[in-house]
Write a structure and sequence with these properties.
mainly alpha; DNA polymerase, domain 1; 2 domains; two-stranded antiparallel ribbon; two-stranded antiparallel sheet; 13 helices; 45% helix; elongated
């Protein structure tokens, strides 16, 4: 099996990418143990799921785990096409989804205020946008002025995650007065100009990536989450608080204000009520105001 897997995926790729692919294949073969010498058609979806889960437990980010799965999909798909296998074992193996993490905590309004106070430049607006719209990090940092109406009352966009799944479902989000006040102070760009140019185009991961930049803002604000996963080897630790927690905070604020789940689901762009429930964290004394009256954080 090892020979067949190593013999593929060598066309039109850089030497660095080739080494990356070969490393992933070696790790998968090592993970198989005794089964590494089995025939290709004896590898089943449980083997791939087990490999995926082992990478996750090792502390690798969802992007790294999903990248490895995508590399393995290609030779198995080709083997199926060429008739070496009657089926494709990768079909039933799902990718790792950040949204499935139910252990994430939420920021309190006081913590969000501290984050905004410590943030510089575009990060101030990005944090306000994350909290008051529930958009994911890359959707915030890549937000364009064409998505913002002239009156600063709403955003209209198709989230990146929806585009990746080839579902062009547009999300329409009302702009909270505090976010509108920040936007009003900015120089409005034309068309595809980005709202947060200092953050646009930056990678989400890595020591100099967006997630690490936000983590440093948290540290300056004295905010620390629970450690959900310890750093192991080249993997990274996972905290219960991150930029993604702003999405949970947004959804929770809506729930605490007694906003109906179907409306929350529409605002967050969730495909199901079950997924939306992941983001709901009710407080002991829930807010009883409508979404427009979520208290200002400053």
């Amino acid at each position: 099996m090892a020979h067949r897997m190593d013999g593929r995926k060598k066309v039109s790729i850089s030497p660095r990418t080739k080494l990356k692919y070969e490393q992933i294949v070696r790790e998968f073969i090592e993970h198989l143990g005794k089964k590494a010498d089995a025939q290709l058609n004896q590898i089943v979806d449980d083997d791939l799921i087990s490999f995926r889960n082992s990478l996750t437990r090792s502390g690798h980010s969802p992007a790294t785990v999903n990248g490895a799965l995508k590399v393995l999909r290609s030779p198995f798909h080709l083997a199926h096409q060429k008739g070496y296998r009657a089926d494709d074992p990768c079909v039933g193996v799902g990718l790792v989804d950040d949204d499935a993490d139910i252990e994430k905590d939420v920021f309190t309004p006081e913590q969000i205020g501290a984050l905004v106070a410590e943030a510089q430049g575009d990060w101030k607006g990005a944090i306000l946008c994350g909290y008051y719209t529930g958009l994911r990090l890359k959707d915030v940092t890549e937000l364009r002025w064409e998505s913002v109406d002239a009156g600063l009352t709403k955003l209209e966009l198709i989230p990146r995650k929806t585009r990746r799944k080839k579902r062009n479902r547009k999300v329409v989000l009302p702009i909270h007065p505090e976010l509108a006040a920040w936007l009003k102070k900015q120089t409005r760009g034309i068309g595809k100009a980005t709202v947060f140019p200092a953050l646009a185009g930056k990678s989400g991961g890595g020591k100099s990536g967006l997630s690490s930049m936000f983590k440093r803002i948290m540290e300056r604000a004295g905010i620390h989450g629970r450690i959900l996963r310890e750093r192991n080897g080249e993997g990274r630790s996972q905290s219960s608080l991150s930029f993604h927690s702003l999405r949970h905070s947004f959804n929770s604020a809506l729930a605490n204000a007694d906003v109906a789940q179907e409306i929350r689901q529409k605002l967050t762009g969730h495909a199901s009520a079950a997924m939306n429930e992941v983001y709901t964290h009710r407080e002991l004394e829930p807010l009883r105001k409508a979404i427009a009256k979520i208290p200002r954080i400053r």
